[in-house]
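#help-structures
NK: newbie question, is this the right format to request a structure? protein is Hypoxanthine-guanine phosphoribosyltransferase
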Amino acid sequence: MSEMRLARTILSVDDIDQMVKRVADEINEVLVDVERPVFVGVMKGAYMWMADLMRAMNREIELDYIDVSSYVGDQSTGHITIQRDLKVDLSGRTVVILDEVVDSGLTLRYLKADFEARGAEKVYVAVATDKRQSTTAGGITPDFIGAQVPDEFLVGYGMDYNEYCRSLPYVAVLELSE
């Protein structure tokens, strides 16, 4: 197995706290007239972002999870597989998809189209971190972005390397060596 080393911190605990409060305010402003929106966390990575946002929103929401996979190890397969589907009916509902990172955009683009096909009235995307170099890369533009981060291998705050480092309360660059 490769040796792992946290090279540097990209987002501190304080940075994340400020980011969460800002994005919660932005979502509350946009959804001010929406009664009980549905928040859908993309598992496993979105759990910290989702919990923090829910506490900061200070409003009634409905919550569900979807577990999808497009990676094996640190490589994207380019194909989305649903491991655990939603339980809530999205027909006529306003949905906010929560994910910890957007890089290729493949997963979020797929989920947004899928939720619209299921009858959602409006689908928003809120990501904690955006690694894309262009705001239109991947054919998806998140409606709410916590932080622009470098396009490096990041771990922490839900992001992992083969299930390692996911629970770190900050975001760091991971370096691997043989």
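mod (FA): yep, format's fine, and the tokens are attached above. The chain has one domain: 12-150.
NK: thank you!
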